[in-house]
Amino acid sequence: MAEGGEQPLEARPVLVGQVAPPGPGDQAARGLDQHGGVPRDEQRRQQCRVAVEVTSGAGIAVTGTILAALFTGDIATTGWTAHQTAEFREAVTVAGLTLTAVAAALVVWGFGRARRATPAAPAPEPVPA
Known about the structure:
Layout: E1 12-13, E2 19-20, H1 24-34, H2 42-70, H3 82-116
Helix pairs in contact: 1-2, 2-3
């Protein structure tokens, strides 16, 4: 344990030999495990991690696509014109609102799906010996 009761960051390999701290999927799976949201078996934890990583990647791809569509010029240079700065701000705003709308739609869909789910049958009572 690190100072303040926090767990120390562990390095993990990612693309092209880079090393990064645990990603959001690791933290999400750990948090869900602690609250009983995900069964503790390894396969389910891995599925949770993959889902978080895929959605993160999709969000980055959507943001990059919107930025590329709305921004003209070289994004890596300094000395942007006022027009380029305005384009960049607009692109980031549109991308953020798009991702927020998609996330809200997925939450509504998840709530609807959870309401239609049938409750699990109660466990049988143990028979006294």
